[in-house]
Amino acid sequence: MDDASRAHAEQDAQSRFRTSKADRDRSLDAIHLLEVHAASAGPGREEEWRASVQGALETLRAALSQQAENSLGPDSLLSTIRTEQPHLCPKIDQLRRRHQAVSEQIDELNTELRSVAERAVIDIADIRQTLDLIATELRYQRARESDLVYEAYSLDLGEGD
């Protein structure tokens, strides 16, 4: 590989890392926003609470959708690792399956929140517990992805999180 090709490859790699980091930052910000809204007072203001949580949940879903779209592309960081280091394919597949599962959980909760709005009955504690489980799973996935990238490139993707 000549110097120009090597420089281009390095630039592509840095671009993949930046995109992945930006996606991770966006989803972490959305998790924090959701936690702020979920922790706000609910009794006596159930509809406002539900609406704010639902808005934050939709922000999280959008961030995760963008992250998934970027990570599935052929030039994404995970796709590149998959190509360059096939022994890591099972870990990448597991990450992608778990990401899909948590996205489905978010969609189900969003549907439930819309349904609750129609019935005017809401169990804030149960919804908070579900939100906590989702946030915990997303943090687990973030750590697994950081470990995977470090294993592939000895680069700490989670640095500064």
Commentary on this structure:
This protein has about 160 residues and is an all-alpha fold. The protein has one domain (about 5-155): Up-down Bundle (Four Helix Bundle (Hemerythrin (Met), subunit A)). The protein contains five helices and no strands. Helix 1 (about 5-40) runs antiparallel to helix 2 (about 45-70) and helix 4 runs antiparallel to helix 5 (about 125-155). The longest helix is centred in the first third of the chain and has 37 residues, at about 5-40.
User: Which class best fits the helix and strand makeup?
Assistant: mainly alpha
The biggest beta sheet is recorded as: none
- The figure for the number of domains is 1
> In what range is the share of β-strand residues?
under 5%
CATH topology: Four Helix Bundle (Hemerythrin (Met), subunit A)
Provide mean pLDDT, rounded: 88
Using the CA coordinates, give the radius of gyration: 19 Å
* Low confidence ranges: none
What coarse outline follows from CA principal-axis ratios? elongated
Instruction: Tell me the CATH architecture.
Output: Up-down Bundle
Report how far the terminal alpha carbons are from each other: 35 Å
- Secondary-structure element sequence? HHHHH
Enumerate how many helices there are, as a single number: 5
Portion of residues in helices? over 70%
State the name of the first-level CATH class: Mainly Alpha
Number of strands: 0
